[in-house]
Design goal:
heterodimer; A: alpha/beta; Rossmann fold; Alpha-Beta Plaits; nine-stranded mixed β-sheet; two-stranded antiparallel sheet; B: alpha/beta; Nucleotidyltransferase, domain 5
């Protein structure tokens, strides 16, 4: 079973929930798809890491073969190509590596070259397999790195926890696509609710079943609670805003290993998610 | 010589559009014939790369000068390759800016912004 953990905004507690779920499940896979700033590994500190470089394809023009028909420029829906003074121009950061330009070129003037954009690390923390996608600084699209990281999941896994990027853009959709279930982490504030509604809308569009973990829940926030109630979204648990948790987090500890209450809460949470997936 | 200006409307008195790549129209003014023509900007609703596509269109119109409020780095790269000069507007309407340009009152643009796109 694959569980994606997501939230509308950063700092809500996706990594906190993901890491603790993976450790609670013991025989599990944790995949960090927050490739712009993967931080699950700070807590899990994986060992025996194997690295794989991730590439994207970029068109390369063989000038002497180009007949200047501009079919590639017209074809590119991302507008990553220009044609100035009979020379084709490629904007690598706008290119989505679809390869269409090479296909439509009637004179075989376009070949594709590999460009490195990131790495995927694969290691272990105890019996938790830790896969981390990392996008190179300055790159604009993390999607190929996320795809490579997710491709590493075997078909018969016990449980895979996908730690998603924040927000509700392409990288989030890519991370959620293979999930059987989505856990939405929300903060009990007006801002938290607003961002939660955005990811809720996204997972609904993608027709993924979902449940909620309310984090830093200092008392109840009625707007969030009633939003969930009205739509029959299960609220799995409310993680308190506790100094002890902040201390554990600050020294990169794992809450379920250091806090008895958290250990209990996360095994309950895991049980609830499993029951929802089996429904 | 042809001058291009992104505009909000198909009138000489139209305001210069604050966006280059997403401008609805381009005004093309020929300094020799004093003729004014308008073209619809096909890149205005583009998913991405609007600046590149718009710049290509300006180059294809054979304009040698662009008067604009601002311009992105990708479009600037196209203009640079095509040797189109980019000047910063100082007035509100297209007409006023053409007059200012012809009097030599406009300065070349020196700052090109990174894209506003939330490309992911």
């Amino acid at each position: 079973m694959k569980v994606a953990v997501l939230s509308g905004k950063g700092g809500t507690g996706k990594t906190f929930v993901s890491v603790n779920l993976a450790v609670t499940a013991k025989e599990s896979i944790y995949i960090d798809c927050d490739v712009e700033e993967p931080n699950g590994r700070l807590f899990l500190k994986p060992k025996n890491i194997k690295k794989e470089e991730v590439f994207t394809l970029l068109p390369q023009f063989l000038g002497e073969k180009c007949i200047g028909c501009r079919k590639c420029v017209d074809f590119c829906r991302f507008n990553a190509l220009g044609f100035i003074k009979n020379i084709p121009l490629v904007f690598s950061e706008v290119c989505h590596s679809c390869g269409g330009c090479a296909i439509v070129c009637p004179s075989g003037a376009i070949s594709e070259t590999k460009r490195p954009i990131g790495v995927v690390e694969d290691g272990f923390y105890k019996s938790v397999r830790v896969i981390t996608g990392e996008l190179n600084v300055g790159e604009t699209s993390g999607v190929p790195v996320i795809r490579t990281a997710l491709d590493r999941t075997p078909i018969n896994e016990n449980i895979t926890v996908i730690d998603c990027p924040p927000g509700s853009a392409c990288t989030v959709m890519e991370s959620v696509e293979i999930a059987d279930y989505c856990v939405l982490v929300a903060e009990a504030t007006a801002f938290g609710l607003h961002n939660f509604q955005m990811v809720y809308e996204l997972v609904s569009l993608l027709q993924k079943p979902c449940g909620v973990v309310i984090n830093k829940a200092d008392g109840s926030y009625s707007h969030l609670e009633s939003f969930c109630k009205e739509r029959n979204i299960p609220v799995f648990c409310r993680i308190p805003y506790k100094e002890n948790l902040a201390q554990i987090g600050a020294k990169a500890g794992i809450a379920v290993e250091e806090d008895g209450e958290m250990k209990e809460q996360f095994s309950e949470l895991l049980g609830k998610i499993k029951r929802e997936v089996e429904k | 010589m042809k001058i291009a200006i992104p505009v909000n409307d198909m009138r000489e008195e139209a305001e210069v559009c604050v966006s280059f790549g997403r401008a609805p129209y381009f005004l093309i003014y020929d300094t020799n014939s004093k003729e004014v023509v308008f073209s619809r900007n096909k890149a205005a609703e583009a998913q991405g790369g609007a600046g590149i596509k718009s710049a290509q269109a300006i180059v294809d119109e054979k304009a040698k000068v662009l008067l604009t409020v601002r311009c992105g780095q990708n479009a600037a790269e196209v203009f640079n390759a095509a040797e189109v000069k980019v000047y910063k507007t100082t007035k509100v309407t297209a007409k006023e800016n053409i007059e200012a340009f012809e009097k030599g009152e406009l300065a070349l643009m020196t700052q090109f912004h990174a894209g506003f796109h939330g490309k992911a």
